[in-house]
Write a structure and sequence with these properties.
A hairpin with an 8-residue loop joins strand 26 and strand 27. The strands form ten sheets. Strands 11, 13, 15, 17, 18, 19 and 20 form a seven-stranded mixed beta sheet that branches. Strands 9-10-12-16-14 form a five-stranded antiparallel beta sheet, with no helix packed on it. The chain contains five helices and 39 strands. By secondary structure, the chain is mostly beta strands. The protein has four domains: about 130 residues, Triple-stranded beta-helix (Sandwich); about 160 residues, Immunoglobulin-like (Sandwich); about 110 residues, Immunoglobulins (Immunoglobulin-like, Sandwich), CATH 2.60.40; about 100 residues, no CATH class.
Length: about 575
């Protein structure tokens, strides 16, 4: 009953008079078990379905809750009652405790013979006497190990993420992670995960990566630098580098460690170490999501059937503190490798939550669009402005001499305006004002005969008044009254057409996935933009619009604002999912 192969399928064929043997009944059981286990493994995967949470009871005791899991062969592992154990009562504790400062609690399928009975043949089938066992009891085995899984392809993340260990030694492990499928010309995030596996001294390292079909800041080389002193003290650290996939089609790319490039310092002293390996990816012009699905359908059968060696489910990582000859529990990390089975009920619930949020966002956007499309009341626009300026003539002027005012602002905004001018021979407010040629009026006391003009700058909303004397004068000042007029319809049109929006609209990303957002301006010359994420833990976006999703699933709002025109603001929403959960 410990078979790990599903195929070939054979079942007993019954007929009258057939002599049934033990082999016939075992074939019947094997056929039904293999069919069910094959469906479990291929349709649902392997890992914890529910329960099996591990918690710390006291300094030397842990508890495992009830639960259900499917192992790598599709066999059901049922824990039908909570299990409380002292550390030294669990297999593997004495052999592994103390080596790295932590232990992994694992569970495996197990079965054993039970219910001894008398054999009527006089001898057991195995020649051990008259006693045989009537049943198999299916159960489980829990044990400790200090070893991590033999390979990194045992979780669903392996379908879309290539994760490799490039260095493991001196109590330090360095892993690299890169998406398996990238879109040509798009962004790619290379993650460097650093784990302190018990190293008590601070450490730092540098190494170089050779990039194929990828670039970092326009180069095909990436220098990785890490210093533990630059981070808050923790057991795990992460560095993210945003790369750019080159504009190629169906090409193999990757990030490989350059030989002999690793420089490791532990406690400030150089340590001999070698890093090797790296990540592979495929760059194409098609959809990366579709490529993941196509790859799964092509290779899943072979991968599942080939990997029939024993693979455990890692329930918890337990950090230990040595105290004399004994060890005590410091903390318990549940499901360190996220080996879960994402079942249909949970998937439906998550989809309902996300759909409700999307519908709410679409409704809000629809209402906003309807409000924007509704007839608007006329905007209060200023169309006429007036004022005066005194031009200093010094001690007078000669015929043909020109004088100019300083640059004046009419206050009507940018664009074309008409400016009318009038001249007063006296700077007092009750002086007579002449608009047009002063030669037409034979006014007494008129001391200044001059031509006037105004020069407007439509890009700045300013103008300058000029004056040319027709005849010499001894006057020292002249006041020019001005009136600026702008077409009200033109002003309203300019304000209505000034817009800011973001592309793309609502989109979906995986955790820690990146996406470039673009701010689109209409009728705005100053196209600077200030990006922000509304939620404090909603991810990060840089000054260029490159957004990195957080580790937590949810819906987050990204906003863009114009520093030059604070009234221009737009937002979009990002739905962050965890691809490992379906």
């Amino acid at each position: 009953m410990k078979n790990l192969k599903y195929f070939p399928f054979e079942r007993s064929r019954y007929f009258y008079g057939k002599l049934l043997t033990v082999d016939d009944f075992e074939t019947e059981q094997k056929y039904m078990n293999d069919k069910r286990r094959m469906a479990n493994r291929f349709l649902h995967g392997s890992g914890v379905v529910c329960g099996m949470n591990v918690v710390r009871v006291d300094d030397r005791t842990i508890s495992m809750e009830m639960g259900l899991a499917l192992d790598f062969a599709g066999r059901e592992i049922v824990v039908d009652a909570p299990v409380i154990r002292k550390l030294d009562m669990i297999d593997g504790y004495g052999d592994n405790a103390g080596e790295d400062g932590y232990l992994y609690l694992c569970i495996e399928y197990a079965e054993g013979e039970t219910e001894p009975v008398h054999s009527i043949t006089g001898a057991g089938a195995r020649g051990t006497g008259e006693v045989e066992y009537n049943k198999y009891a299916e159960g489980y085995r829990i044990f400790f190990t200090a070893q991590e899984p033999e390979h990194e392809g045992f979780t669903t993340a392996n379908y879309y993420q290539d994760t490799k260990t490039v260095y493991w030694g001196n109590g330090i492990r360095i892993k690299q992670s890169l998406r398996r499928f990238l879109k040509a010309g798009g962004p790619a995030v290379l993650s460097i995960m650093v784990e302190n596996m018990g190293q008590q001294q601070s450490f730092a390292f540098d190494y170089e990566l050779a990039l194929t079909c990828l670039q970092y800041n326009g180069k095909d080389r990436l220098q990785v630098h890490f210093d533990e002193k630059d981070f808050p003290k923790a057991g795990r650290y992460r560095l993210d580098f945003t790369l750019a996939a080159m504009d190629v089609r169906d090409a193999e790319g990757g990030a490989q460690v350059v030989s002999d490039s690793l420089r490791l310092l532990v406690g400030g002293k150089s340590v001999t170490a070698q890093a090797a390996g790296g990540n592979l990816c495929r760059v194409s012009g098609g959809s990366a999501d579709r490529a993941v699905m196509d790859q799964y359908y092509r290779t899943a059968m072979e991968d599942i059937v080939r990997n029939t060696y024993q693979q455990s489910i890692y329930l918890a990582k337990i950090a230990l503190i040595k105290a004399g000859p004994s060890y005590y529990i410091e903390n318990v990390e549940t499901m360190p490798f996220r080996q879960y089975v994402f079942n249909g009920s949970l998937s439906a619930a998550m989809n309902d939550i996300i759909l409700e949020e999307l519908n709410r966002l679409r409704k809000e956007r629809g209402e906003n669009a309807a409000a924007q499309a509704a007839p608007k009341a006329p905007l209060p626009v200023r169309n006429v402005a007036s004022g005066s300026v005194v031009i200093n003539l010094g001690i007078g002027g000669t015929e043909g001499q020109r004088f100019f005012s300083a640059e004046l602002s009419h206050g009507l905004g940018l664009g074309n305006v008409h400016i009318g001018l009038g001249m007063a021979w006296d700077i007092n407010d009750d002086a007579v004002v002449i608009c047009g040629s002063p030669e037409i009026f034979d006014e007494e006391g008129g001391e200044v005969l001059a031509e006037m003009a105004a020069k407007a700058d439509v890009t700045k909303g300013t103008f300058v008044v000029g004056l040319r004397l027709i005849a010499a004068t001894s006057a020292r000042h002249v006041r020019i009254h001005w009136t600026a007029v702008r077409d009200g319809k033109e002003a309203v049109k300019d304000q209505e057409q000034r817009r800011l929006f973001i592309r793309p609209d609502v989109c979906e990303l995986g955790v820690r996935e990146t996406r470039y957002f673009q701010a689109i301006f209409e009728n705005v010359s100053d196209q600077r933009v200030k990006w922000s994420v509304k939620e404090p833990q909603g991810g990060e976006i840089d000054e260029n619009g490159m957004y990195t999703a957080p580790n937590t699933v949810g819906v987050y709002e990204i906003a863009a604002e114009s520093p030059a025109h604070p009234e221009l603001r737009a937002s979009t929403y990002v739905v962050v999912r965890d691809p490992a959960q379906g």
